[in-house]
Amino acid sequence: MHAPQLVERVRKGDRRALARAITLVENGAEELSAIMAGLAPGTGRARVVGFTGSPGVGKSTTTNAVVRAVRAKGLTVAVLAVDPSSPFTGGALLGDRVRMQEHATDPGVYIRSMANRGHLGGLSWATPHALRVLDAAGFDVILVETVGVGQAEVEIAGRADTTVVLSAPGMGDAVQAAKAGVLEVADVFAVNKADRDGARVTLRELRQMVAMKDRADDEWKPPIVMTVAAEDEGVAELWERVEEHFAHLEATGGLAVRRRARARDEVQAIVLERLRSRLGGLGEETGLDALAREVAEGRSDPYAAAEVLLEELGA
Amino acid sequence: MHAPQLVERVRKGDRRALARAITLVENGAEELSAIMAGLAPGTGRARVVGFTGSPGVGKSTTTNAVVRAVRAKGLTVAVLAVDPSSPFTGGALLGDRVRMQEHATDPGVYIRSMANRGHLGGLSWATPHALRVLDAAGFDVILVETVGVGQAEVEIAGRADTTVVLSAPGMGDAVQAAKAGVLEVADVFAVNKADRDGARVTLRELRQMVAMKDRADDEWKPPIVMTVAAEDEGVAELWERVEEHFAHLEATGGLAVRRRARARDEVQAIVLERLRSRLGGLGEETGLDALAREVAEGRSDPYAAAEVLLEELGA
Fold it and tell me: Membrane spanning segments where (chains A, B) (predicted)?
């Protein structure tokens, strides 16, 4: 399929074309620049909602329940799972995978995992491209699921229009881990498995953390929702909070700011990837490998080597 | 403290100088290029061992026990914790933190956490710098602890001379998550909490995965060690396997290959950071923000915008 045909079919929401386009993204294919140029005019419509949290808090169960809530509103929805432990990516227990299948025959739902671990910056580079494809395909809502532990993964979740951070009771160190960077990106908190012991403690801890942050009067204060996603409890309320946050972004102009920031990251990632591949090329011909050897053996230092390469790049 | 003084004192292993140098790394300070140039001649001696695995497998307990085993061999050791959930970084339970303190008065042990989440690529950029400082300070062994979930974190662990991947029984989906990329970087496996139910199952799963991979006859086959790190069980054996792997690398020339790859990454990371900051600068003056706006609004696409910037960079 040539780029113009693929673009045409993606824009119609054709499933095979979507799958093909995202595979091209995963492979970093050359056609991408033509495809993205073709898709650009149709983008900017979808609401992008990130879901993140430590392994075990129930991200996939929650995502699945949210898909149901969004469909109940008559909206179409795509799920992009960049979490390696997600059942979407084939990483988790069979029970979860079966649960996902309830959406398999719904034409208003599309689920796709991203397996790209190929190169440094891989996820940061590939995720915005995949979002762009799903956006152009006309989905009303895109849910991005990432594990809330890695640096790249947290950054990806934080670049959504609305970022939902999930916790669960009884995960002492996981909640602590979350503090390290995940909480800063939260627009909405969900305490999942809220029927378990310790849910009130988790709620209280989150409340304290939310309260501690200084905010202007008109600034968004992240609400906290208690959910039992496996039983669909609290999920409609969670989605309401997400919609409120989106409305707040629209009303304050924050939406355009976030989307420009996302586009900025995307452009930078492409520029840096192009320069990186040029570096690799230079290396083979003119000596990145030789420079690396000198650095490894203590005969040079990485900054001096970097200066040599920058000169060779002409930058 | 000026760069030459700092370099002098780092090379003597002065604790305050070490702490200061790594803080400069975390802040991406300008002095770094002078400091790294000064430290270069003393580097390349330390053995770098990475420890990674999902949250909850006992990474910190194992690292702590390994510190003891390494000290018992008369070697000095530095720990660099880039795991946000590590007790070294203040993320975990008090009990763990107390346990670490056994090394607080040992002049042959230095423990440092990395809190840098500041910018995209932060950890990938900062970690090799911090390793370089600890290497120049003369430690025989450097243990790098990262959580085995994020893309950047797994890559960091995989760039060690020897990478130890930890599992624990009864962590179904965590072990599954590990499969997504962590296993590929393993030189040695440890099944921690091996006194718990399910340890044999985990061992069998790992054995199968190790067996499934095609290897040349002289290629290293990752051994699997059963440990109960909290009781010091199996830890001496774990360290023996690490030493055997290191000896194998030395004998086959693999060590130099790995270290050149690490240096290559390091040089590339510096080049890309410099270009990235130049991009930011260009943006303010000549229009990255304007380009990002066009992309966000669907009036341009990220590749077209990237081309404009590459031309402006002169690259």
Answer: none
Residue B81, φ and ψ in degrees, nearest 5: -100, 115
Interface membership of B261 toward A (CB under 8 Å) = yes
| Confidence (pLDDT) at A174 | 47
Q: Is A11 on the interface with B (CB under 8 A)?
A: no
Residue A266 · residue B302 · CB < 8 Å: yes
Q: What percent of chain B has pLDDT over 70?
A: 85
B98 touches chain A (CB under 8 A): no
Domain range spanning residue B232? 43-252
pLDDT tens figures, B103-124:
778 889 998 887 655 444 577 7
Do B282 and B148 fall into the same domain? no
Interval A220-254: pLDDT, tens: 999 999 999 999 999 999 999 999 999 999 999 99
A264: contact with B, CB 8 A cutoff: yes
Q: What is the DSSP letter of A55?
A: T
For A263, which of B172, B263, B292 is closest by C-beta distance? B292
CB distance B17 to B113 below 8 Å: no
Query: Are residues A299 and A245 part of one domain?
Result: no
Q: Which residues contact B198 (CB under 8 A, 6 or more apart)?
A: B169, B170
Q: Are residues B96 and B234 in the same domain?
A: yes
Are A36 and B303 a contacting pair at CB < 8 A?
yes
Q: How far is B290 from chain A (nearest CA, A)?
A: 9
Strand partners, B81: B113, B145
Instruction: ipTM value, please give it.
Output: 0.80
Q: Exposed/middle/buried for B118, CB within 10 Å: 0-12, 13-18, 19+?
A: middle
Quote the pLDDT of residue B274: 82
Query: Are residue B222 and residue B308 in the same domain, yes or no?
Result: no
Neighboring chain B residues of A152 at a CB cutoff of 8 Å: 120, 150-152
Nearest chain A residue to B177 by CA: give it: A85
Q: Which residues contact A270 (CB under 8 A, 6 or more apart)?
A: A125, B302, B303, B305, B306
Residue B265 near residue B124 (C-beta atoms within 8 A): yes
B85 → closest Cβ in A153, A176, A302: A176
- B window 150-169, beta carbon within 8 A of A: 150-155
The CA distance from A227 to A145, in Å, is 17
Q: Tell me, what CATH number does B71's domain have?
A: 3.40.50.300
**Window 206-225 of B, Cβ < 8 Å to A:** none
Token representation of residue B14:
């002065």
Task: Give residue B256's pLDDT.
Answer: 92
Residue of B nearest to A114 (CA): B180
pLDDT of residue A37: 92
What is the token pair recorded at B207?
A: 């054995």
Residue A55 touches partner B, C-beta closer than 8 Å? yes
In chain B, residues with a C-beta closer than 8 Å to the C-beta of A84 are 149, 177, 180-181
- How much is the CA Rg of chain A, to the nearest whole Å? 21
- How many Cβ atoms sit within 10 Å of the Cβ of residue B200? 12
